[in-house]
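hey so u asked for the seq, here:
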Amino acid sequence: MRMLGIETSCDETSVAVVQDGRHQLSCAVRTQIDIHRLYGGVVPEIASRAHVESIGRLTQMALDSAGLTLADIDGIAVTAWPGLIGALLVGVNFAKGLSLATGLPLTPVHHLRGHVAANYLAYPELSPPFLSLIVSGGHTSLVHVTGYTEFRTLGRTRDDAAGECFDKVARVLGLPYPGGVAMDALAQTGRAGTVAFPSAEVRGAPLDFSFSGLKTAAVNFLHNAQQKGQDFCRADFAASLMDSVAQALTGRLEEAARQVQATALVLAGGVSANSVLRRRALETAQKLDLPLYLPPLSLCGDNAAMIAAQGFFELSAGHIAPSSLNALATREIEDNEI
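ran it, structure tokens below
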């Protein structure tokens, strides 16, 4: 079964073709980093307009790259939730138009489910059940994946996401957008542990996260140093912050793995590209003697291949949307209602 995937949840416009949920035939991506860098972050209205400008051309590019036409496609998968509502609406309405014009079934996909499914493209042997740590600019959660369309959240952030923490601190540090990527590069020459940061724990909820206090402490450190004219090693600061966040994430990953008796660990989301987190996750997997699946860097960020991959499993489960499908800015990963 060949699925055409469409992704417009934030600042990447992407269209891809995936066969049987496992084989990527094409993936066209138009990133908006060059547009939003001027503002130091994503501007929702500008992102939506850029999606409108690119989505038709990218669809043709994805089909051409796969050597196919719409007549060769079996279903259309689109990110319908969660994300920036204006950006989501561009993809959803475009997909609805294609579905109505071609008669192809339309399948809505949860964005975070898509991030998990990126690993299906890289690892043919991977199948549920497994424990997934999903980390991105807008989301941080621990999810027990018990089936291709069955998910149970074990823990989540109570405030800021890990990626949001990196990006906001990087902006104060004067690093270019996207800040998390720039900070990762800076941290490569730094020494972790030279700057102390508060814990990200939530009392009474051992699998939840809270990065707001950690982010505030990091910003206050930078502001105090600037106001007092104090010198500090930027690389040490970046390495310490990243290691603190990575320890918080993998510590809870370890605890959740013990609780559900996990048989495999999976990283997903844009922050899964972070080198410190990948190293810490590998150490955790080795400690637990469990296999660890890390998405290739090309599939960590937002892309339509992961949406098409998950779309295959959603369509196989009978999750077909009517023409009244609407986008949602927020939605639980467990929800299977159309």
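The chain has ten helices and ten strands. The longest helix spans residues 234-260.
lmk if thats what u needed
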